[in-house]
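Task card 7
Instruction: Convert sequence to structure tokens.
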Amino acid sequence: MDWRALHAFRIGDRGGRFYLECLRYGASLWETGFAARSLLCLDRAMGAELSGDESELLTHPMPYAAVAWIVAHAPEGVFLGNPRVHFQHYAGRMNEPRREQRVWRAWACWALTRTVRPDLPGDPRHRITEPATEKVAESLSRHGLPGERELFLQTLSLACRWSRRAGA
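Output:
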């Protein structure tokens, strides 16, 4: 796969088909050693226009686990960047459409990143209040899809096992 997989969606529907194609392309990038670019595809997937009843979501829920896995398991020498800073900036500079939903998804990914890679520093020059995990979960209840809060919390529990603190 290459960039053309998503280019087909540059105009028009950014729903379930777009979501699934972002996940497929992100997986392809991960498999070929592009961890940072894979995370960017997952960002795009989380920005898809979904109502929660799409068949794609039944088989492929929001990719919180994939985000945590990539951050925790990126091989030494594979460019990952600093996903903690990425998600911090992404949340703090989000625009429409569905701004609140996308902001809280970015903060959820930030929380997962902090869990699996506590060694990654935030950006001290980016003046923003970093939310507590409880605030992220509560905000996903209000702005996310049905069950998204629970999915995030389940993934957070799983991510604790992948933490570099635990020797993963």
